[in-house]
């Protein structure tokens, strides 16, 4: 979550980061519980290192929910379609 950059045409608080990739890999290798644990640890470390502007981890909670919303459907689609086509469908959507 330390390497992130804003999108040119969107507000400054919308950034692109690649921190969900380890959770995605954990989901595909170890299952959905591992992905949830990785998302939790990722957001906990970010909150402890950087903190929050409001004092409450509202942004981290939103990132946690968004990460789970991204990773879990990908896991369930790949679980159903264990082919290259299924993996391409996961990464395209």
From TrEMBL:
<keyword id="KW-0472">Membrane</keyword>
<keyword id="KW-1003">Cell membrane</keyword>
<keyword id="KW-0812">Transmembrane</keyword>
<dbReference type="InterPro" id="IPR024529">
    <property type="entry name" value="ECF_trnsprt_substrate-spec"/>
</dbReference>
<feature type="transmembrane region" description="Helical">
    <location>
        <begin position="21"/>
        <end position="41"/>
    </location>
</feature>
<keyword id="KW-1133">Transmembrane helix</keyword>
<feature type="transmembrane region" description="Helical">
    <location>
        <begin position="61"/>
        <end position="78"/>
    </location>
</feature>
<dbReference type="InterPro" id="IPR025720">
    <property type="entry name" value="RibU"/>
</dbReference>
<comment type="similarity">
    <text>Belongs to the prokaryotic riboflavin transporter (P-RFT) (TC 2.A.87) family.</text>
</comment>
<protein>
    <submittedName>
        <fullName>Riboflavin transporter FmnP</fullName>
    </submittedName>
</protein>
<dbReference type="Pfam" id="PF12822">
    <property type="entry name" value="ECF_trnsprt"/>
</dbReference>
<keyword id="KW-0813">Transport</keyword>
